[in-house]
Amino acid sequence: MRLSKLAILLTVLCVTVVVFAQPARQPWIDPHPEIPYLPKPPAQPANWLVEQQPVSPNASPEARALLHMLYQISGHNTMTGQHNFPNEQEFSTNVAAIYTGKTPAVYGTDWGFAAAGDKDSAYSRHQSVQAMITAFHAGHVIALCWHEVPPTMDEPVTFRREIQSHITDQQFDSLLTQGSAINKHWLAQVDGIAEYLKELQDAHVPILWRPFHEINGDWFWWNGHRGDATHGTKQLYRMIYDRLVNFHHLTNLLWVWNPDQPARADRQFVDYFPGLEFVDILGFDCYGAFQQQFYDDLNALSGGKVMAISETSNPPAIDVYKTQPKWAYYMRWAMDKAPSLGMLRSVGAIPPTPGASPPSVPRPTAAGTPPPARRGFSRAGLQAIVMDPHMFNLQDREYLKAINDVLKAAGARTVRRPEKVPTKP
Fold this sequence. Notes:
By secondary structure, this protein is of the alpha/beta class. Helices cover 34% and strands 11% of the residues. It is built from 12 helices and 10 strands. Strands 2-3-4-5-6-7-8-9 form an 8-stranded parallel β-sheet, with helices on both faces. Helix 3 (91-100) packs parallel to helix 10. The radius of gyration is 23 Å and the shape is globular. The protein starts with a helix and ends in a 16-residue tail after the last helix. Residues 12-20 and 359-375 have low confidence and may be disordered.
């Protein structure tokens, strides 16, 4: 059925009115102008590195050996890394290995928060412990974070509705108040996680432990609270340190403090920094460009300690390390199964699904190169990064020499030959 010219004109006018009737985006307003911003510390040389002991006073031999290894490689090499969803252990690491030809050295995962069967399940923690033990004995460095359930709720929860929810300022202040109901509930949640960390400690597995990650953001319930020495999100970080180190006497943790990109005035790193006495490694989550100012601001806080890219989608190009030399490792975030398998099939890395149509051939760009793969890198681009001599992977003999010193400190068998790249995810 044809529309008359008048009907078409009225339709266009209605759409125009709807578009222009949308309210203008309001400028950001500081919710706490009464809290002063802290001054940034002075800039330091890009290669500022002063080896220090772990902040845990009775750190295990394997934790001390791992931190020493990080200091030894910092400024010279960078370990590749891959996160894995808690209920899909090894999958993303294997996909990365098949896609690039080398296995990431850092094995990352999470304690989870979701219902049984979900990729982020909180009910697969014993299996996660076993996966981390196996990965460590294969020569991986283990990195661990926790999308913690809000202290006003109980597991299981969902990511969008609960992990990314907000608690009120009053609830946050009550959380920081010893003996309050919400404080006791939070302590019970931490105590539950401590039992699994103790399993890893008993197995002599050192952990790059990254609590309350992206601490300066505003998308998780824990982040974005500025404050003085006894308030704000940095005090919550100190509290979990105190509970795990001084109450539970965990000795296998290296403490990774981790902000995100400082996109607004209220996200500068210094306002969320808990102090050098609580931090072994300064991590940085970056899903954008690795701007030099971000590196310089983080380095200025570091006291000469190790730095790392604790979460990203695209690792830095090799040239970035010329002016940002201290990144000891990077870790790409986990990959969902369906698109990951499709990505591997599209490049012929795994057989096609029986009966499925052959994958379409990517059309070249104007320059004649194939379009970028998932998350911005072509397969050749990622391979060029991981194959560069600057990078450490599980198949690199110099890396194995370094991690074997950690395995020896843990009383474990050393890795004599590089692990083969898996053929199945």
